[in-house]
Amino acid sequence: MEIIRHSEWAGTKLTLHLVSQILGKIKLGLAPQEPQWAHVTLPLTVSGFSTGPLWSGETLFDIDVDVAASAITVQVKTATTVIPLTDGTSIKSYYDAMVDALHASGITVTINPKSQEMRDIWWLDRDETPLAYDTSTALKGVRLFQYAAREQAVFLAPLRCRKVKPALFWGTFDVSSLIVYGKSEPFPEDKVIEKAAFDEHMIEFGFWLGDESVDVPTFFILPYPFQYTDLGSERLQPVDAYYDSKMSECFLSIEHVSRADDIQAFFRTSFDLLSDQLGWEGRAHYFLPLDMPAQPKQEPTDESL
């Protein structure tokens, strides 16, 4: 798997993050609500990400971001609008084009145009700052998201427990999935996002593309309730994985992934460490083999490493 550092595509990554906020906020306004905000995540596609199918009354539509084709496609029933992703276009232009395409088909959705969970505040409906876009680096970033989603799915799919499948969380722009234990644990502060995201015991498996302070993409695993205590890293695999008590997270930089099974080992050892700490019972049931015919084992090709 080819690694792209934050510093190598920061401008294009910002553009995709802002575009994902528009898709996410539209989905937030229309999708039936689910615990842990699972209804607002954006599924990954072969060449980008999408709202997935959404209903506005009796009208079905979706919005798809295709980074390979450098295009945003708004499809309402049989009507299709293509919005080019181009270098120098503002987020206001993308916002206006998407909203106008929906309005032309009779779809009205009200969103809060203020960016969410980003370091800097952007107004999606009015900021005219020219944004960067480069197709080749955008594709590299999406390929990393796809790689992380596949690894998360391999780990979570067979588990006999409640879970949220891998998808793009557009607020923080990471690909994450959850195992939810189902024990009530209300968030202690009156914060809208956190109150719904953290109201039950859970463990989040995530992948983040980095920022100005952490240049290299990184896998992370986060427990809730948060555990700001020294758990030690001796149980974690591979050897470069570690637990940070100040952040209440386990980390593995993608630069330290050298073997095909390193990520799966990181997921399992982190889950064992954190679920032990949280006192989860009945976990052995999660890992009972499925009573299904075995699938042929899919070995990674050279291109996917």
TrEMBL record:
Pfam families: DUF5996 (PF19459)
InterPro entries listed in its UniProt record: DUF5996
Name the record gives this protein: DUF5996 family protein
The species this protein was found in: Exiguobacterium aurantiacum
